Amino acid sequence: MPSRQSFIGADIKKVWMSELIIDDTGWLSLVEAIQSPNYDSRPDNSKIKLIVIHGISLPPADFGGGYIQQLFCNTLDIDAHEYFSAIGEMRVSAHCLIERDGNIIQFVSFLDRAWHAGESCWRGEQACNDFSIGIELEGTDDQNYTEVQYRQLSRLVASLQSRYADIENDAICGHSDIAPGRKTDPGPAFDWQQLHYLLESP
After folding, report:
1. Structural domain tally of the chain?
2. Do 42 and 113 touch, CB atoms closer than 8 A?
3. CA separation for the pair 57, 99 (Å, rounded)
4. Is 5 part of a structural domain of the chain?
5. What CA–CA distance (Å, rounded) separates 36 from 110?
6. Which domain holds residue 45?
7. What is the mean pLDDT of residues 136-159?
8. Pairing relation of β-strands 96-98 and 104-106?
9. What pLDDT does residue 30 have?
10. Of these residues, 19, 89, 99, 136, which one is catalytic?
11. What phi and psi values does residue 198 have, to the nearest 5 degrees?
C-alpha cells in the first residue's frame, strides 16, 4: 500500500487533470490512501466486473467532519454525535470515497474485497462484494452531488475500466440497484445522465 499522501499546497488542478494510474497491487497513484482494516480476499477466480456507487454522510446531511474515514477505520468516536452510537460497532468500508470537494481517498486495494454492498444481488449473482468495486460519494439521497464529484467519479470509473477489462459500460449501478428495498443510495439526487455524459466525452 502506498503511504498516505497529502496534496495540500500542491497544484490540485494539475493533479486532478492527470490520468489516474492503478498499480499492480490495486492502489491508485496521486490520491490519498488510508488503509481500512475492513477487507478480505476476493474468492479465487472472481473477476472484477461491477462498480457500485454509494452515497454517505456522517452525521446524516453533514459534510467534511472526517467521520466517514473514522467509520471505515473503526475509530469513530461514538460520543461525537448521538447518531454514532447506532453505527459505532459496524465494520464497513469502500474502496474509495469522493468528498464534496472532489478529493479521492482510497481505503482498500481494488484487488481485495471491501465490505460495502452487504446482502446484494446483480444479474442473478449474490454477494456483490465478491466481484465489485465500491465507490462512496459524500452526500445524501436528496441533495445534489457536486460537479467536481461527477468529474472525479467519471475519471475514476474510466481508470477502473481501463485496468479491469471485465467492467462493461452497463456494469455501473447504485447501491439501491443491488439491494432494493434495503438501500436507497445514491438516491434520486444522483444524476446518472451526467455521469454517462462525462464517461462518453472525449
Report:
1. 1
2. yes
3. 10
4. no
5. 12
6. 12-200
7. 97
8. antiparallel
9. 86
10. 136
11. -65, -35
Site of grid cell 454514532: 84
- Between CA 4 and CA 152, with CA 116 as vertex, the angle to 5 degrees is 55
- Whether 3 is in a domain gets the answer no
- Return the HEC string of the chain: CCCCCCCCCCCHHHHHHCCCCECCCCCECCCEECCCCCEEECCCCCCCCEEEEEEECCCCCCCCCCHHHHHHCCCCCCCCCHHHHHCCCCCCCCCEEECCCCCEEECCCCCEEECCCCCCEECCEECHHHCEEEEEEECECCECCCHHHHHHHHHHHHHHHHHCCCCCCCCEEEHHHHCECCECCCCCCCCHHHHHHHHHCC
Give the pLDDT confidence of 80-98 residue by residue, as tens digits: 999 999 999 999 999 999 9
Which CATH number belongs to the domain containing residue 171 in this structure?
3.40.80.10
In angstroms, the CA 60 to CA 81 distance is 11
| Position 5 pLDDT exceeds 80 | no
CA–CA distance, 12 with 26 (Å, rounded to integer): 23
Evaluate whether residue 7 is within a structural domain. no
Residue 32 is a catalytic residue: no
Q: Is residue 6 part of a domain?
A: no
pLDDT band at 202 (very low <50, low <70, confident <90, very high): low
Is 53 within 8 Å of 190 (Cβ atoms)? yes
